[in-house]
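As a warm-up, study this chain.
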Amino acid sequence: MTRTAVVLFNLGGPDSPDAIQPFLGNLFNDPAIIGLPWPLRPMLASYISNKRQKEARKIYALIGGKSPLLEETRAQAAGLETALGGEATKVFIAMRYWHPMADEAAREVAAFGPDRVVLLPLYPQFSTTTTGSSLKAWHRAAAKAGIKAPTKAVCCYPMHDGLITAHAALLERALEHAGDQPVRVLFSAHGLPEKIVKAGDPYQWQIEQTAAAVVARLAKPDLDWQVCYQSRVGPLTWIGPSTDDEIKRAGGDGKGAVVVPIAFVSEHSETLVELDIEYAEMAHENNCQPYIRVPALGVEAAFIDGLAQIVRTTLAPDAPELGPDSGRRLCPADWGKCPCMEA
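Now compare it with the structure written out below.
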């Protein structure tokens, strides 16, 4: 019986108030986030994490003092394990910036003794700052744990049918709730510094493809929609337009907003605080009503079934070592940071 390990990658989040500062320290010490060399990077990471922890504690206090991301990811892992079926397949979780991190997950995978491993990011759209960073951390951890099993990694799945079906179904429900009230659909994704995208990171292009595919699935030719980006920090220029500016613009146009977390498949601080509290207040102040937030995908059946399909396709004998489930590079050649090779 072939034993298969599937490793889900996610960001991770603090599991207590005391974990907030070290979580932030891990985040800002990642070379994919801050490109300074050692020892400047850890010194700066320590400074930023200490400076930001007070505000971060206030944010997490609004949702119980910790991130729900691990519980959300565990539910997705359990659903995926059920969808894949069989005792010979086990799904593991490797968080990037808080426990269980790659080293812990790799030790669990090694103890399981798999014959093959699939690395599956819970980031549908590839970025060097998310999937790219997680893959590097995993390969270091796997080597340290002595994992020798053949390993295939999924790069991205921004237009996969399961992802699009799940998003479209949740958005359809939200639009029904809005009724005849004029609304603009805002596909909100976590932002990136503009310089990262200009260096060839395909994240923004893939976000746009996901949003366009969801709109096409709805088949509503008159739908008013916009892609936008949230969570900007620091002095750098970030990709836009920003979600807050688009909320204000919708209000100015006499419309409400239906906000879709298009890059987040799990609920966490950016959805539960930034979208549900901060942006909801902004919408109220700017006469952007109704303000409706579409849930993250979570354990939506179409999404979980889609992940299972991606795993099965990745395990096919002729599947590429690294690539989307189609086996072909999705991104135009301009996006040189895309890790997929041509089939």
